[in-house]
Amino acid sequence: MSARSLTTRLLAIGGATVLIGGLAACSSGGSADTGSGGGKVTITYLADNAEATAATAKPLIAAFEKANPDITVKFDTKPQGTDGDNLVKTRLSTGEMADVFNYNSGSLMQALNPDNTLVDLSKESWAKDVDPQFTKVVSTDNGMYGAPFGTSFGGAVLYNKKVYADLGLSVPTTWADFISNSEKIKDAGIAPIIQTYGDTWTSQLFVLGDFANITAQQKNWATQYTKHKESYADQPALAGFQHLQEGKDKDLYNEDYASATQANGLKMLADGKGAQYPMLTNAISAIQQDSPDAVNDIGAFALPAENADDTNLTIWEPNGLYIPKTTTGDKLAAAKKFIAFANSSDGCKVQNDTGTPGGPYVISTCTLPDSVPPMIGDLQKYLDDGKASPALEFLSPIKGPNLEKICVQVGSGITNAAKGADQYDDDVVQQAQQLGIKGW
Amino acid sequence: MTGVTATLTTAVAPPQTTKAGPGPARKRMRSFYPAWFFIPAIALYVVFFAVPTFAGFYFSLTRWTLFDQTFIGFDNFVRFFQDPQLVSGFVHTFEYGFVTSAAKVVLGLALALLLTSPVLGRGYLRAVVFFPVLVSTIGIGITFKALMDPFHGIINGVLGSVGLPTPGWLTDPALALWSVAAVDVWKGVGIATLIFIAGIVAIPQEYFEAARVDGASAWTIFKNITLPLSRPAMGTVIILSLIGGLRSFDLIWAMTGGGPGFTSDVIASVIYKQYQAGFYGLSTAGNVVLFIVVTAIMVPISWLLNRKQADL
Q: Which pLDDT tens digit goes with each residue over A324-373?
């Protein structure tokens, strides 16, 4: 190739790159000022795509727009689970996040690099009303980034009270009692423990819901775990994996455990075809929707530990509402108003009217309605007795991405408890390194 | 390939070409189009292929959270190869790739033989075999997930009604990967059949007539005429289906999500899960590994098949 033609080609490439770069800059600059014209502001609210989420979000937006006629809120949805996590991270890092978004508190929120991406809300008027336990799980050393939305809930065993009454069983407080109850239920021809690996995340309850029992036996376990000084391969944490294996070994799971979905599992529980389902208690809203007559038959008890003294209820904090740093000016003011409204008594009324609470609220402006499912009373007893403590994801930023698959393997008998615990200890290493935690 | 042929021609017959142009060396370099003609293509290539490729190689050497990145050298690759799921993921990928490819070759050839013979409703049958290729892979995955449901699926409903065993096609750890592979073959065999039909139709009829005059049996005709002369078609089918099999992801993800547990995980699904988990550097390293592995397998195979084709 001659020297001249090479130069022309290089020039051409350079010119084209500049051209395309310029176009890209144009398109990203173009969207900045939409919605601020004429004193009317439009903001976007992003939440997950579950039916129950939309059932609350839409009336909430309608009530807010009625109270603030100059603000319009557009509702946008994201997938649940890890797909959604990924979308939130991508949109935050590309500066395209919705003005207000609804996302987990605790370890998942910590993974968003909140100091650099989210607006500090600690000076907002509602902040002082928030339960300090919740404030902790949406804060870093530099600020508080989230407002609560929805109620806290438990990770517990939902059980069918009718089945328990028919068979003359009482609520178990030790693991041995739980197993002996389950054997009796099995003899009666009812599936004793419901597992639903068609929705893989549901497999984690035996392990995650056991965490309050670990804390009861060893107060500083979570801190030591973050420092890489405790692991799931050793007791007391190994117990969760062992329980999962024992249920399979003793054939206590429903026969379609490998393919059933969470909805199938809740239906089984409501119909009395299954007796006990380790689940998050906010699933009660799905029972309310699909089998409203059965809501009063459902109770809850904490996943039992080996000793009754250690049997505590594991509590999950509600999701938070967050504002990304890319939202500024009028939109920021409107976004803050929206968050304040969601936590005002009007906002709480919408939440109460449109969903079924899975546990108590974590902000003093919100109170539960008079008629709540009896299951809430079961949970409240643990809270009143001081026998409840937060799930690991609210005490440590470390949560491995593959726990649900590992639990499916143990619960299906593909691997045993010790192997599963080892695999999970391996799985969290990458997460800890990614977060830059010392000691990993 | 054409470039090489052109060079050979010019080298063998220089007198003609010198008359036509300013010299063989210059002619080979000179394009028919002016430089500006290539600008759009080059710009697209640089922006969408060259830059991302090199950025990918760079990010595979970092711990990358999308918000910031730390250069960590080859740690990602070390970590990637220590991952116990990855080893099983590799094994599954090869099993899946080779089994689906082999099945597509055998079934595709058999179907092509049937559909090139004067069978009743040939045009219709050809369309039916090709139809699954046109349907979205995710759609097929979701449909078969429902069909293969161990308790409510039609497949087990039929098997159970005639007293046959009703396995958990997608929930039995020993079966899951093979159930997906079977669906993959069903979906992809149409393309293989089409390529084989084109190959067989291109064989001159005289060979078959001559063989028949000589009294050759059907098997001999197949073994000595159809099979060797459709080898170029076979090479294409093997390469296409093997590449497809080694990097397959969508069907597996739609049907099992790599499960139960990790029993149907392939490299691509392991990488995707790492990406989902926010391990962007690690999953980029995984893609670099996948790229190298697929290249390392495909280049020799492609070379081998092309050489045989040239021998014919």
A: 999 999 999 999 999 999 999 899 989 888 877 888 888 988 888 877 88
Q: Are A299 and A158 in contact (CB under 8 A)?
A: yes
- Give the integer Cα–Cα distance in Å for B237 and B108: 9
Dist. CA A209–CA A78, nearest whole Å: 26
Query: Per residue, what are the HEC states of A97-147?
Result: CCCEEEECCCHHHHCCCHHHHECCCCCCHHHHHECHHHHHHCEECCEECCE
What is the rounded CA–CA span in Å between residue B264 and residue B256?
Answer: 7
**B64 falls within a domain:** no
CB atoms within 10 A of CB B212: 12
Kindly report the pTM of this predicted structure: 0.80
**CATH code for the domain of B174:** 1.10.3720.10
Radius of gyration of chain A (CA): 24
Taking only the tens place, the pLDDT of each residue in A71-121 is 999 999 998 877 788 899 889 988 999 999 999 999 889 888 899 999 999
Nearest chain A CA: its distance from B38 CA (Å): 9
- B142 assigned to some structural domain: yes
Enumerate the β-bridge partners of residue A324: A118
Verify whether the Cβ–Cβ distance B257 to A200 is below 8 Å.
yes
A37-149+319-354 and A153-316+377-434 in the same fold: yes
Domain membership of residue B188 (yes or no) is yes
| A24 contact B CB<8A | no
The reply to whether B16 falls in a domain is no
B308 pLDDT tier (thresholds 50, 70, 90): low
Residue recorded with tokens 């009395």: A272
Q: What is the pLDDT of residue A49?
A: 86
> What CATH number has the domain spanning A153-316+377-434?
3.40.190.10
Q: What is the pLDDT of residues A214-259, one digit of tens each?
A: 999 999 999 999 999 999 999 999 999 999 999 999 999 999 999 9
Task: Tell me whether B84 touches chain A (CB under 8 Å).
Answer: yes
- Determine the residue among A402, A406, A435 to mutate to test chain B binding: the one whose Cβ has the most chain B Cβ atoms within 10 Å: A402
- Give contacts of B63 with chain A, Cβ < 8 Å: 433-434
Q: Taking the C-alpha atoms of A359, A364, A365 and A366 in order, what is their torsion angle to the nearest 10 degrees?
A: 10
Q: Does B85 touch chain A (CB under 8 A)?
A: yes
Find the domain containing B98 and state its range.
84-311
Q: How far is B100 from chain A (nearest CA, A)?
A: 25
- Domain A37-149+319-354 carries which CATH code? 3.40.190.10
Q: Which residue has the tokens 């020799």?
A: B300
CA distance A401 to chain B (A): 6
Structurally, how many domains does chain B consist of?
1
